[in-house]
Amino acid sequence: MTAYILRRLLSVPLTMIGVTLIVFCVIWSLGPDTLLSAYMTGGTGRAPNAAERIIKKYGLDEPAIIRYFIWISNTLRGDMGYSMAGRMDVSKAIRQMLPSSLELIFLSLIPIILIGSRLGLRAAMNPDGPVDSVFGFFSTVGWATPDFILGLLILTGGFVFFKWLPIGGLKPVMVKGWKDYTYSTLIDSILNGRVKVFLEQLLFLLEPVMTLFLVNSAYIYQISRAGALEVKHNDYIRTARSKGLSEREIMLKHVRKNALIPVLTAGGELFASMVAGVVFVETIFARTGIGSLIADAALMFDVLTLSGCVLVISILMITANLLVDIAYSLVNPKVTLWKEIPG
Fold it and tell me: Which of 76, 250, 291, 309 could be 282's S-S partner, Cβ–Cβ 3.0 to 4.6 Å?
């Protein structure tokens, strides 16, 4: 297990380098003239001799390999250019908007895993029964429905049936004495001691969380159900059943732990799905976050913002997959990264 974790940790830098190379190639494929125009947006383009200084700073007239290292150096210092979509530096826009999206993702992730896996185990207790049929139908509908369609339905339903449900996001900048510590309204409301702001933000998050939950919990339901059904056919389950244990006791004591391992391995795919869903959900519900920033940047062809967002999201996904692999190795010590070749 230790060797597996070390191998996964060693593979992270190589993956990071691969991601940066892909992002760099996409950026520089646009040509130096387009990039010069992009870098000259904001206040930098109005300075005297701005074009010459930008060409030198970003190495626009240098060979590709030198441009790559200059770009990496600037990126590590947080200099990714100016974001037309965010009306500020790209790094600052990402730093301010990413926490809002992460709080939406994590608040959705908790019920997705807890409820989705629970329903999957419940359905596996009596496969093809009434409960399994009902849950299976709704999970199929939920998984097949795109995020933006479901979001629009929930948005419309929230206005028609629950007129008190708000959309958008709470902007507490006008609150007296408010300080942005993390740019996450939920966390900052706790740090500022504002319980009312915390509760209001939860209300704003209700519909977006519901949208992500309904789509992604269907996937977790299918994974946990399939895992439970596979475990139920093992010999030790038949032995437990022969000892007179009830189906509920078997599910809780013997099946649940092993059936949830596939749910853990699906964490990377789930995170990727939710990141993609955030783009639509934040746009539909008028929330400020990394998803809405990507949508605005795409409409404005803001290549610097798009490349910065892709780079940050890629790093988050690499980190998430690494944590999932490490957690999987802890719950299943038999896992290995590759088969050892006998000497």
Answer: 291
Tally of CB atoms within 10 A around 243? 9
Q: Which of 24, 55, 84 is the last residue of a domain?
A: 84
- The two tokens of residue 79 are 């200099």
Asked if residue 274 and residue 165 are part of one domain, the reply reads: yes
177 domain residue, yes or no: no
**Residue 59 sits in the same domain as residue 113:** no
Cα 141 to Cα 42, 144, 187, 226, 263: the distances in Å are: 46, 5, 34, 18, 20
The answer to whether 97 touches 86, Cβ cutoff 8 Å, is yes
Cβ atoms of 122 and 223 closer than 8 Å: no
Residues 116, 41 share a domain? no
Q: What is the pLDDT of residue 339?
A: 46
Backbone angles phi, psi at 83, to 5 degrees: -95, 115
Q: Decide which of 60, 84, 108 is a domain's last residue.
A: 84
Angstrom distances, CA of residue 307 to CA of 55, 94, 287:
19, 11, 21
How many helices and strands (H and E) does the chain possess? Answer: 16, 2
pLDDT less than 50: residues of the chain: 337-343
Distance CA 268, CA 116 (A): 16
- Stated pTM of the model: 0.80
Asked whether residue 58 falls in the same domain as residue 138, the answer is: no
CA–CA distance, 261 with 259 (Å, rounded to integer): 6
Looking at the fold, whether 102 and 140 belong to one and the same domain comes out as yes
What angle, rounded to 10 degrees, do the helices at 90-125 and 290-300 form? Answer: 120
User: For 145, which DSSP code?
Assistant: S
Which residues share a beta bridge with 83? 88
pLDDT of residue 166: 64
Based on the fold, state whether residues 210 and 295 are members of the same structural domain: yes
pLDDT at 343: 41
pLDDT for 340 equals: 44
- 158 and 292 share a domain? yes
Residue 116's domain spans which residues?
89-172+205-331
Q: Is 335 helix (H, G, I), strand (E, B) or coil?
A: coil
Residue 177 φ/ψ, nearest 5 degrees: 80, 10
* Range list of β-strands (E), the chain: 82-83, 88-89
